[in-house]
Amino acid sequence: HLLIALLDALKADMFTRSQILTGAGFSGDGGTPSQRLPDDYFTLEEAVLEIDRSPFPSCVSNEYMEVLAANGLMQRVWEVDFATELAGPFDKSMVSMLSWPHVANHILNWDEAISLVISILKGHYGGDQAFVGDTSPYFAAAMEHFLKGEPHYVQRFLTLWATTSPTQRKLRFWYPITWKHSTAGVLRFHVQVNPADQRGGLTFNDWIPLDEATWAGVRMLAEDETSTVHTFAG
What we know:
Elements: H1 2-10, H2 14-23, H3 44-52, E1 58-61, E2 67-70, H4 72-78, H5 101-104, H6 110-124, H7 137-146, H8 151-163, E3 173-181, E4 185-195, E5 203-209, H9 212-222, E6 232-233
């Protein structure tokens, strides 16, 4: 193919190559002049190592919003040891844990955070059918777990569910969290969500401090020699 040969000779970058090929009516071929790894994405094991090296509180979740791994700093912010706590079914689900006081009481912008969760659930899992068992058995079970939590949070969730519009998100998005820590005080984060792998639906959730007070709190937690919390992977 003459066009392919020309792009090869020019060593066009991947984006330019794709633009030219699609503009000419062909499919992009993924060609690139750079040396690439056989797989640019992460296995779960590699993702665990990646968050272990992160300077931010960070966790890895799947498309059902279950926490599959959390670095030590993330666990210190959450004030939970994943190796010994949250061991029951759905305890590590970001959906079901939001009605349990040991998590929900720390989130000062709870309504804002849960509205984002609701918009994603409704946008990607069938709107009001998201928690119906035959539509999504996982979320139906997670919702049952959620409804056993603090009634105050359950009622707020049901009110927000009725008023929140569905939204479909790209693979990269963010959400704000204002977290009240028992010793570090109020911590404000920009939580950046990025894809970790291509086919398994894993994402990195990096809790990036928004102000100097939060940075100071995170540094204090990172330097806490009394805590032996290690990166969790389960």
